[in-house]
Design a protein that fits this description.
The complex is a heterodimer of chains A (169) and B (434).
Chain A: H1 5-27, H2 32-48, H3 59-77, H4 99-110, H5 114-125, H6 130-137, H7 141-167
Helix pairs in contact in A: 1-2, 1-3, 2-3, 3-5, 4-7, 5-7, 6-7
Chain B: H1 16-30, H2 39-66, H3 73-88, H4 103-107, E1 116-117, H5 118-127, E2 133-136, E3 142-143, E4 145-151, E5 157-165, H6 171-175, E6 188-195, E7 201-208, E8 218-225, E9 230-237, H7 256-263, H8 268-272, H9 294-304, E10 310-317, E11 320-326, E12 331-339, H10 346-350, E13 354-357, E14 363-370, E15 379-386, E16 392-398, H11 416-423, H12 427-430
Helix pairs in contact in B: 2-3
Classes of the chains: A mainly alpha (169), B alpha+beta (434).
């Protein structure tokens, strides 16, 4: 018997949920409750369209796009509910990791406009190209470049030397 | 895990700060653990199910409320693409575009959003209706529907027209749109459907905004299914809004003939051509993974019916079917839901009440009570069953011929024992599934 669609979906969800959740944590600058909510919403949307997924080449990448769009539409609807730094990453730091820097990064991300944050997450965490980022966000490549430059400048200003220090360890 | 280094499709080499940022993002992101967050997948699954149910309610429930059955997701897909899930609840009413609300695009489902200027749709509406004052919502917007308020001096009335593609252009999924619904689910005063010279199909229904008629808002609607697979769906109300507005006149402004003239206008052709093509799918639109189709459910239901019952009406959709049966003592509605993978909500379903567990692990819950959708003297008998691996079959029977109708008899035509036999039949597990 061929694998049922539901099984396929569960397999997909089990494999991708961790990454979706981590992306959501970065998008929400550390609000793990909102991140859980966004992850579930994304999985729900993927489930609802799963029957049609056969024609969408890369469901994993598509789910990331859905997540970012879900996040942005959430931001538009409820601008004030985000709790920056609601929780810190809940894993104990490992050797060479700097909890202070993580806090600084999440704090710096929280200082960005949601769409700028989405650009940063797509470009530097998801490793999307400018064009792919533009597609995911329904904006032009030029807009992504502008946002990217602006966000990087802001992050550089906030994080300053600490990031270089981390990176050279 | 995302990789930053040496990205083949990047636009420019990343250096210095960008490299460092990537490293810190990865380190920080990986620091968030999903351990102990098992509810993520199950919660996602539950939401997905709810989303499908909502969509189906929006599509069939809404359509049942006013018109058609068995549509599938095309209508729903388009509508979700237009207005997002929150507005899709108004499907049968009027699919109104929600300016600025892009939730629908996050849906990312199926067809791309149509980009027809609302003013073009408005122009065709105006050109093909009797003269009067018009005010259209979001006239500078784009989409595939227009909602306006029409005033001929006899009271302001909401009017909407939506343009859609039927499922993949083949008739079956779209045909449900232009067949009069059963009065089991929805009251209406008049409904006609048929094929026009040239092969297009038309349904005109004069019904109500609320299936229980709790307000006097009427909704009259005409739906045209062209033989090349387009749907033109026009609705009018006797109030300036679909819901929540006082009625301003006894009836909506346009007669059935005028509505027909509107949906069959040649002016729609160039606009319909602008609708994006639907993506091909291999699961029937509207179906949930593992679901059984409406026709299969109906035929299985019929095969399991006790002798001596006459079927006077029937229909179904993915995972759902109903029959109206009569044993000579009055009509009785008999409904069934067949739902795979419901194990995660088992505790909510079988956590209380008269529940027994069979030797094979199947749970059976019997409920006998007052019908939830009303109707004078109506009782509902329900047998809800689920296998150990979450395959749920729930059957119920009313002592009335439809929801919100008054009792026709003292008890439903099927006894609890008969309902149990039907719900627990191995045929449900064997029925073909998507």
């Amino acid at each position: 018997m061929r694998k049922s669609r539901a099984d396929e979906f569960l397999e997909f969800a089990s494999a991708r949920t961790g990454h979706l959740f981590r992306s959501a944590c970065l998008l929400t600058s550390g609000d793990t409750h909102l991140a859980e909510d966004l992850t579930q919403e994304t999985l729900g949307r993927m489930y609802a369209m799963w029957g049609r997924m056969a024609r969408i080449g890369n469901p994993a990448a598509y789910a990331q796009t859905v997540l970012v769009r879900t996040f942005l539409s959430h931001q538009r609807r409820r601008s004030a509910t985000e709790r920056p730094l609601g929780e810190l990453p809940d894993r104990a730091p490992e050797n060479g990791e700097d909890p202070a820097l993580r806090i600084a990064l999440l704090d710096a991300l929280a200082g960005l406009a949601p769409k700028d944050r989405a650009v940063v997450v797509l470009r530097y965490w998801e490793d999307r190209s400018i064009e792919e980022t533009a597609d995911a966000l329904h904006v032009s490549s030029a807009a992504v470049r502008t946002r990217s430059v602006r966000a990087l400048a802001k992050l550089r200003q906030r994080l300053g030397g600490s990031i270089a220090e981390f990176a050279t360890r | 895990m995302p990789l930053n280094e040496g990205s083949p499709h990047d636009d420019a080499p990343r250096e210095g700060f960008e490299e460092e940022l990537g490293a810190v993002l990865r380190s920080t992101g990986e620091g968030f653990s999903v351990e102990g967050r098992r509810e993520l997948v199950s919660g996602g699954l539950t939401r997905g199910r709810r989303r499908l149910v909502r969509r189906r309610l929006a599509v069939t429930g809404g359509a049942l409320a006013l018109a058609a059955v068995g549509i599938g997701g095309v209508y729903g897909g388009s509508l979700l693409g237009t207005g997002g899930a929150s507005t899709s609840a108004g499907v049968a009413g009027s699919p109104k575009p929600a300016p600025g609300d892009k939730v629908g695009s996050a849906e990312g489902v199926g067809p791309a959003e149509a980009q027809i200027p609302v003013k073009d749709i408005a122009a065709v509406i105006q050109a093909n209706t009797p003269s009067g004052q018009w005010q259209f919502e979001n006239p500078e917007g784009k989409g595939q529907s227009a909602l306006g308020i029409y005033d001929d001096g006899g009271g302001k009335a909401a009017v909407s027209v939506g343009l859609y593609r039927s499922a993949g252009g083949d008739g079956e999924a779209g045909a449900g749109q232009v067949e009069c619904p059963s009065k089991v689910h929805v009251p209406f005063d008049k409904c006609t459907s048929g094929t026009l010279p040239g092969g297009d199909r038309l349904m005109v229904i004069q019904g109500y905004e609320y299936p229980d008629k709790r307000e006097d808002t009427k909704n009259w609607r005409a739906v045209l299914l062209t033989k090349d697979g387009f749907l033109v769906d026009a609705s009018e109300w006797n109030a300036p809004a679909q819901k929540g507005a006082e009625v301003t006149r006894e009836n909506p402004p346009f007669t059935a003939t005028q509505l027909k003239a509107l949906v069959t206008a040649d002016g729609w052709r160039p606009l319909l051509k602008q609708l994006p093509k639907l993506p091909k799918t291999d699961t029937p639109a509207g179906a949930m993974p593992g679901e059984t189709g409406g026709p299969e459910i109906q035929s299985t239901m019929r095969s399991l019916l006790p002798k001596g019952l006459r079927v006077t009406d029937r229909d179904g959709d993915y995972g759902y079917g109903f029959l109206v049966v009569d044993d000579g003592k009055g009509k009785s509605l008999f409904e069934i839901n067949v739902q795979p993978r419901m194990g995660d909500v088992a505790h909510q379903l079988y956590g209380s009440g008269d529940v027994t567990t069979l030797p094979d692990g199947r749970r059976v819950k019997v409920t006998q009570g007052t019908a939830e959708k009303g109707g004078s003297g109506v009782v509902s008998w329900t047998v809800d069953t689920m296998t150990a691996d979450g395959f749920r079959v729930v059957v119920s029977s009313l002592n009335a011929g439809g929801h919100r109708q008054d009792a026709t008899r003292a008890e439903p035509a099927l006894t609890i024992e008969q309902l149990k036999t039907i719900a627990l039949s191995p045929k449900w597990l064997k029925a073909p599934k998507n």
